[in-house]
Give the backbone structure.
Amino acid sequence: QGISTGARNTLLLAEAEYYMQLANAQLQLAGNPELAALALGMADDRIVQLADPALTEVRRALSDELAALDVMEKPDIEGATLTLSSLAGVVATLPLREAGGDEPDPAGADEAVSGVDRAWASVKQAASGLVRVTPPDETAMPLLTPDAEYFLRTNLTLQLQVARLALLRGEQAVFEQSLADADNWLRDYFDTDSAQVRGARATLDEIRGSMMVVSPPDISGSLQRLRQYNSLSGAAQ
């Protein structure tokens, strides 16, 4: 209120362009189609307020893009992260495999595991330092010392937390590698005949299968048309 029509229209156009840019960034960079759709809807609201027939093609492009986002397959990232967090919380109760022969103790794990609550860079650094243990012989499983068992369970918990954070950040390669490492440790050092361990591994498989990368639709058309409109309007003035 209290500004000229020209200034108001300029502001609305700038807001519409900003929301379109935000939508493209949320979809292409952050992989968040929900926020992308919200931003496109806000852009469309600004275009409606302009009430300019010359913007009809822009609104048509927005409508098509919103429809494409609506039918886009959206993995349940929130549900998967909650499941991974819950799974990390029960690692301490999962039964280990029975002890066997005199294989070397696999307890050389990196003790710097407090990075779960640190910044993402620290978490990835901690994860990269985890010891990769050679799978034990099926006929002989070493008796783990209390310290070795503690670090085995702690590092498994850390891998699950890394997978959760990687999923939230859209780092697919880190997510998949962390899940694979966690599943390998469950297979090699825990009692795979236990219903708890079988359930944990099945949960990891389900999460891995449900988080397939989906190619996002192109929602840049409306932004291009709006910029063409702005160029033509500026040239006319």
